Amino acid sequence: MESPKVVIHARFSPDGSVVEIGERPTGMDPQAWFNILSDKAASSYQALAGGRGVFRVTRAEVDAIKTETVG
């Protein structure tokens, strides 16, 4: 059975930069976290209307990316 997915919401400004994103490590810029997730979990991203999007990844994947990124 597949692990439940964590939904990480991202919100973009009109210029396309990320202004808010969930599961962001403390002290990390929202755009930097989005870039990391885009690199590591691009296939799990879904664009939504209204300047929003979501990543659907497992908790294990999120934790592994955070560990890899911030040590």
Briefly say what this structure is.
This protein is 34% helix and 32% strand.
Key phrases:
71 residues; 4-stranded antiparallel beta sheet; alpha+beta; 4 strands
Describe it.
The protein is of the alpha+beta class and 71 residues long. It has one domain (5-70). It contains two helices and four strands, in the order ββαββα. Strands 2-1-4-3 form a four-stranded antiparallel β-sheet. A hairpin with a 5-residue loop joins β1 and β2 (18-21). The mean pLDDT is 95.
Set out the fold topology.
Blueprint: E1 5-12, E2 18-21, H1 30-41, E3 45-48, E4 52-58, H2 59-70
Antiparallel strand pairs: 1-2, 1-4, 3-4
* CA-based gyration radius: 12 Å
Describe the main β-sheet briefly.
4 strands, antiparallel
Taken in chain order, the helices and strands follow as EEHEEH
- N-to-C span: 29 Å
Shape summary:
globular
Strand content: 25-35%
| Major β-sheet strand ordering | 2-1-4-3
| Count of DSSP strands | 4
Quickly count the domains: 1
Please report the number of helical segments.
2
Q: Level of helix content? A: 25-40%
Mean pLDDT: 95
Class computed from helices, strands and strand pairing: alpha+beta
Could you name the ranges where pLDDT drops below 50 across 5 or more consecutive residues? Answer: none
